[in-house]
Amino acid sequence: MESAALALLLAYLLGSLSGSLLLGRLVGTDIRQRGSGNAGGTNAFRTLGWRFALGVVAIDIGKGALAAAVGIWLQHATLAWPPHALAYACVMAAVIGHTWPVFFGFRGGKGAGTLVGGAALLWPACVPWLLGVWLVVLTSTGYVGLATIVAALALLPLAWLTVPGGDARWAFALAASLFILFTHRSNVQRLWTGSEYRFERARVWKRWFGRGAA
User: b/e map of 139-156 (b: 16 or more CB within 10 Å)?
Assistant: First the structure.
């Protein structure tokens, strides 16, 4: 039990190391005072450019993978947990840390990058599917938030189709999809009211089919 608590605490602290806020300090800015106010990769890209956003995403994905590694490392001392269950719980703890970081006044990002980092280590087969769904929705609608929500929800049918019952990936798929839906609730509200930011340059399907129709 003590090992599990230590692993979850370490994972939360790792998650609290927000990529956008750490890099923002290096360039003398708080990204939460720019754009949408979200400390994530999308807002970083829109306000500070792709190079800054690439560094943000690398840190956020990396800490998710590192949190999973902490869970794997301490799993041997926590035999009461099913295989990899502690590692998946550590990923979720890191996501919670990313969203409510103790080092930055509990105001962080929405957790998608950190989830992908953990999944890349523990459930690598799901990552191409998630990225594929994300790209299809983004390039057809231009809505980054909607693409992220749909990709996270895609974990549920993917688990149903490929994961045996009782596997820890079931719990991870449910927790991750519900958490992303929760952190993107403002995006859902803006989509409903028609005020959500649309990334028009990403709508390649519209350009391709529009050109063909012309």
Answer: bbbbbbbbbbbbbbbbbe
